[in-house]
Amino acid sequence: xxxxxxxxxxxxxxxxxxxxxxxxxxxxxxxxxxxxxxxxxxxxxxxxxxxxxxxxxxxxxxxxxxxxxxxxxxxxxxxxxxxxxxxxxxxxxxxxxxxxxxxxxxxxxxxxxxxxxxxxxxxxxxx
Length: 127
Fold this sequence. Notes:
This protein is of the alpha+beta class. It is 31% helix and 36% strand. It contains two helices and six strands, in the order ββααββββ. It has helices at residues 29-49, 60-77, and strands at residues 4-12, 15-26, 80-88, 95-99, 107-111, 118-123. The chain has a six-stranded antiparallel sheet, with no helix packed on it. Helix 1 (29-49) runs antiparallel to helix 2 (60-77). The longest helix is centred in the first third of the chain and has 21 residues, at 29-49. The protein starts with a strand and ends with a strand.
């Protein structure tokens, strides 16, 4: 599926909020299944490799074997995720493209590459 853009608001403390646009990736069932399978395979591969690490071989393999199915489910149920945000930072007042990832939610945090501040991103209601 193609990416979609949604209007968002970036805010930071007492600074006036700014308007921005977030790009969101909508995942098809096959894409979600592929992403989930890659996560599962990565966890189980790391569990196999961690068998040769003395001391940690008692802890890491069981944890990674249990984490694999959890990662699979988590990545499979994620239907959409943020890719990037394009807009003006409320603090440094510069137009930026901020890379981000994570499940699509109504409110999340993103860091400005210029000033390093943590901005609050709120998805505006689309009418």
